[in-house]
Amino acid sequence: MGWIQLYQSFNPNNPPTPNRRHFGAMIILDNGIIAPGGKGFGMHPHDNMEIVSVVISGAMVHSDTAGNEGVNVENAVQLISAGTGIHHSEYNHSDEIAIDNLQIWFLPNKKGIQPEYKTMVSSPIFRDGKLQLLVSPDGNLESLKIHQQAWVWRGTFQENESITYLKKQKDNGIYVFIIEGDAVIKNQRLMRRDGYGIVDSDDVEITFNTITDILIIDVTLIF
Q1: DSSP letter at 170?
Q2: What predicted TM-score, i.e. pTM, was given to this entire model?
Q3: Is 125 left (phi over 0), alpha (psi -120 to 50) or beta?
Q4: Is the sign of the CA dihedral 3, 195, 27, 117 positive or negative?
Q5: Burial of 110 by CB count in 10 Å (0-12 exposed, 13-18 middle, 19+ buried)?
Q6: Judging by beta carbons within 10 Å of its beta carbon (0-12, 13-18, 19+), is residue 183 exposed, middle or buried?
Q7: Is 208 exposed, middle or buried (0-12, 13-18, 19+ CB in 10 A)?
Q8: By CB distance 3.0 to 4.6 Å, which of 159, 166, 194, 200 could disulfide with 190?
């Protein structure tokens, strides 16, 4: 479209490769770089979808037909539960700085709900050396409540640190996405914007070669 660079890990309608249509109930993981100067998406519809946005840098203006509006700044997390249907728009708030944004779509476990809109800010101090819960089915630990068996975590770890993540339930898979940095999972090196999915293990060990900012998405594979 001229004003966005879009990188997709998953897309059920136009998969990057034939076997990458989804990861369980997670059907889209996009990294969009939106140009400055008021560029963005005009009003458009969604229904029966859980849409999580993580603003890596920049500031995004949100407006929707339910009356929600505001500016999501760097480190903001936004969750739209589209339910019975909602129209919304998203634009770059800056005339000078591009937006670096992650958008993750989940199929809901309940259709036809009243649309909901929620936001939080993932301050770096709350994820330095540990995982901060951004999204969960029960809204635990001040996370945003999602209508699916899905947990989204973000953490920043130092060089030579290692962590082991244990998935929340046996029917889930674990998807690790490197926002920035350099890490190793099962002898596989992962770098900036790489992802790694685990479906055959209850846990995953991650070792960090440099300072690394990661997302861990723990999501049902049965939907």
Answers
A1: T
A2: 0.96
A3: alpha
A4: negative
A5: exposed
A6: buried
A7: buried
A8: 194
